[in-house]
Design a protein that fits this description.
The structure is a homodimer. By secondary structure, chain A is an alpha/beta fold. The first copy, chain A, is built from 14 helices and 12 strands. At the A-B interface, helix 4, helix 5, strand 2, helix 6 and helix 11 of A face helix 4, helix 5, strand 2, helix 6 and helix 11 of B. The structure holds a DNA duplex.
DNA sequence: CGAAGGGTTGGAAACGTTTCCAATTGGCTT
DNA sequence: AAGCCAATTGGAAACGTTTCCAACCCTTCG
């Protein structure tokens, strides 16, 4: 079934039918009604391939997710999609195995599909530097800042990771902790790792403590298993630690397990603070004190940025508020 | 840039170029080499819109996920995608707000995009009955069985939910529990709820206990918050319960929290068994005894079914093995 | 009354592929 | 030398839209 079938059956020309379908002007009320009626009757659906071929754009909005299993991203997608569909846009999600090739994948996708917009959940700004020079569509990087890249179409929405990590660790220091371990990310890892690590370092230094990376830090991927193993190694190496700061909730969750496995309790023996405020930290036993990234806000803002970008707005770099939410995993010593 | 540019520059016709690009026969080695060379030189990428318009097919494989936040599905997507890309297929994921409209969404998508294959993560077979009559592409339903629907192109891969639930509850009964509560799903909910509920009922009956739905059952959505609230209500109503069977790990996780909130311990005061074996039950404190659904196997099998279906195979209904994994949340009374 | 102009309309051209068919080539066979 | 056949090739047609332009019909105005 074709737009021509609709034209024939409704008694109008294809041009008029096309205009009617797309809500364009220069169609009489009479014609519009008749055409819509015939469309409904025949159950006609426009062919997106033909449409996008002609319009030279394609897939509504492409979302790239790197790091399957990052709970925060799962929580961002819902609101993001909701906001976009409310404006009549659709999204299509692609999972990327490895965060490092995100820009390459995106570039290929863009070349091939010409999406209207692109959203990156995770992925390090660095990798956009080389291979993402000419973005055709508005793009937004969520949870990392792309400000210093200053690419014309690449926006970002994120919290101030450094300040948040500083607050998290200061929280521990203020409660009397002096032997504090850090787990997650990696020293020469992406922006997020670096920023959070630097924030932690700063807070410690402000309290007269120098972070000994050799002894009190253990890197790992942002998955439960990573946190479990890294915290295990850290605890075995430095049993006098009274607190652990995990660079992400999933890491904290794994760390919690590792702590318990050694017969220690949280917060009795070691205090724990996470980062992200996913459902993991809300429902774990004990509940974990963490930095709240407002997933809903992140999702909605990202959607807005894309929408505005499609409307011609230039790239922006938003900082959304964060919050330290105190729960039961930190003890005053 | 066009296929015609490649044709012109390489000195061959568009037909030959097209054949060379698609690895079809009837292209001399000489021509193929030259054409590939020119393509690389010009950085040419075929336009998928034009291609799919002509081929009358589109998006590689469409994946529909219903119920954001279901950890099991997150774990299935990775292996699914891995298997598919290994065969040169790509996937595109769409999140559906509400499980009930999955068939409608799929039908629309199919009409508009003509995907090569479709996979449904979650979604109840019932909703496919009416609106999914003529599937053009092979489709597979994961975690529910579509066997009784007997649709020509709709396959399914799932575990035997009823038997697994029976095993889970029997496990509790064999350890001396007589007052067992059940949380999650709903009585007139989808296939999964029904099957697991029936399995629980059967196991109880085999041990001389009749499940009192009014008193010992509390329905809820498959999210942490649901489990938390439902288990809370259940516990308040029937404080003499010594064990709880949750219809999903996320529900169990929420329930664990509710139990602890009431000053009770797991497994000291109440034993708990979950269902799915997501990372939640592996890392929680205590670790939760649960039914393992092998996410990787589910994902890989689903991919296989789609691949075979594209090769012309007809619908199959696979049952993959499950396993009761004993951890620390069940006590013998 | 003729011209001008705004709102509609129809249809051809174009978007970038794949595919079909006819034409060409070159090596064998008879 | 002529005839065949297979392998290769070129190019037109088609896929289903959108858009541009010309044509048309009314009003309205000078």
């Amino acid at each position: 079934m074709d737009i021509r079938d609709i034209a024939a059956k409704s008694g109008y020309g294809v041009g008029t039918v096309s205009r009617a379908i797309n809500g364009q002007p220069n169609v009489s009320e009479r014609a519009r009604e008749r055409i819509l009626e015939v469309m409904a009757e025949l159950g006609y659906e426009p062919n997106v391939n033909a449409r996008y071929l002609k319009m030279r754009t394609q897939t509504p909005v492409a979302v790239f997710v790197t790091g399957v299993g990052n709970r925060l991203f799962d929580d961002v997608i819902g609101p993001l999609q909701a906001e976009l569909v409310r404006e009549g846009e659709d999204i299509v999600v692609t999972y990327l195995e490895d965060g490092s090739n995100v820009a390459r994948a995106a570039a290929e996708y863009q070349l091939a599909r010409h999406p209207k917009g692109m959203v990156f959940l995770g992925g390090d700004p660095e990798c956009f530097r080389t291979s993402f020079q000419e973005v055709g569509a508005p793009a937004v990087l969520v949870t990392s800042s792309a400000e210093e890249l200053a690419l014309p179409n690449l926006s970002s929405v994120t919290i101030d990771n450094e300040a948040a990590a500083r607050d998290a660790v200061a929280h521990l220091c203020e409660r009397g902790h002096r032997r504090i371990g850090v787990v997650g990310g990696s020293r020469d890892g992406g922006q997020i790792s670096s920023l959070r690590l630097r924030g932690a370092e700063d807070a410690l230094r402000a309290h007269g403590i120098e972070l000994d990376y050799e002894r009190d830090y253990e890197p790992c991927d942002f998955i439960e298993a990573g946190g479990f193993e890294a915290a295990g190694r850290l605890l075995d190496r430095a049993p006098d630690l009274t607190a652990v700061f995990a660079l992400g909730d999933v890491v904290a969750f794994g760390a919690l397990r590792a702590i318990c496995d050694r017969g220690l309790t949280v917060p009795g023996d070691v205090s724990l603070v996470g980062f992200d405020d996913t459902s993991l930290s809300q429902y774990s036993v004990p509940r974990i004190t963490t930095i709240r990234q407002n997933a809903e806000l992140l999702g909605r803002r990202a959607a807005r940025v894309i929408l505005d970008g499609m409307g011609g707005a230039s790239a922006t770099h938003e900082l959304v508020p964060y919050e330290l939410v105190e729960r039961e995993s930190v003890r005053t010593v």
